[in-house]
Amino acid sequence: xxxxxxxxxxxxxxxxxxxxxxxxxxxxxxxxxxxxxxxxxxxxxxxxxxxxxxxxxxxxxxxxxxxxxxxxxxxxxxxxxxxxxxxxxxxxxxxxxxxxxxxxxxxxxxxxxxxxxxxxxxxxxxxxxxxxxxxxxxxx
Length: 140
Ligand code: AMP
Ligand code: ZN
Description:
The protein is α+β, with helices and mostly antiparallel strands. It has a single domain (4-115), classed as HIT family, subunit A, CATH 3.30.428. It has 3 helices and 5 strands. It has helices at residues 4-10, 54-75, 122-139, and strands spanning 17-20, 24-28, 38-42, 79-83, 98-103. The protein has a 5-stranded antiparallel beta sheet with strand order 1-2-3-5-4, covered by helices on one side. β1 (17-20) and β2 form a beta hairpin. The chain is globular. Zinc ion binds at residues 3, 5-6, 45, 95.
């Protein structure tokens, strides 16, 4: 398959590996959005979050705190962001990956949340939570 992250796992494309086990591979993101920016990926090719099975999810996510603590120890950041981009608008590599981004005073990373609480009343919150619950029940 023509996937750069599968090629990285196979060693066909070089990477700065920081962690590997039977199911998971972690390496430096080439962009280094902040110092230590690391990607955690499953060895099994999965396009994105929607395709992640429970066993693979457990394997990948269980490595995240271990790496977060290693980044904290190595670089003493003020904080850390964990990011996944699934499909549009931001996913650029179609092999599931989790970004770990240590944060520093005056770094140049731009992640912000918006607060739309003023647009919501009880009936809107209820409609949204009902839609999610009903979709969850249909998944089974
Ligand atoms: P996303 O936009 O969430 O799909 O993230 C893909 C990430 O992969 C980007 O942050 C890229 O910098 C990174 N990336 C692409 N090619 C490589 C590579 N060969 N080695 C390391 N990181 C890469
Ligand atoms: Zn792949």
